[in-house]
Amino acid sequence: MRKILFVLSIIFGIYYVFLFDTIPSDFKMVFKLIPMILIILFALLTRNADRRYYTLVCTGLVFCAIGDYTLQWFIIGLTSFLIGHIFYIAAFSGGTKRVPLVAKILLLVYGVMMAIWMCSTLLGKGETILAIAVFAYICVILTMGWMSFCTGSLLSIIGALLFITSDTILAINKFITDVPFSHELIMFTYYGAQIFIACSIAKYSEIRNKVIH
After folding, report:
1. What is the rounded average pLDDT for all residues in the chain?
2. I need a labelling partner for 128 at 20 to 30 A (CA). Which of 53, 64, 117, 202 fits?
3. Average pLDDT over residues 90-118
């Protein structure tokens, strides 16, 4: 059953990403949510999972799905995704691996550059509240990426980095300048991130078992 859900999530994800213009307007949101619902079900059916990691990641997936729908009201959607990232951070914080120095430097440089770029642009437009919200979101997603390295799971790390990539493209496209093929780039990396994070549930359990034994 999990394999079927996995394949269906990829099929519906690819359909929404690359055939978006063929979807009737009234059903675009439905088709956007279908891959996430399938990914959530796939994650929920993971067997022999580390209970803490399983619960936190699945909760994070649900809040991200809520964010998918509420992003049409930007601050509400941003808040839902922020909560989802906090659950991912909590899940990743159970890891015992050290964050590589290169990863620390790159993530910090990214965070500073994005914060200065985004917030200065928004403050210049008089969007003070939005600038604060975006700054908080950058801090949270940066922390999520940082903590993913603690898990020792390549799936968690790839998922977190894809999420950062997706949100970076979205932010640049929304606040700075139009990004060519923005829909395809944002949603492909976004669905990819969620799939990798969902798949990391089983892998994380294997890593934890090795540590314990």
Report:
1. 93
2. 64
3. 93
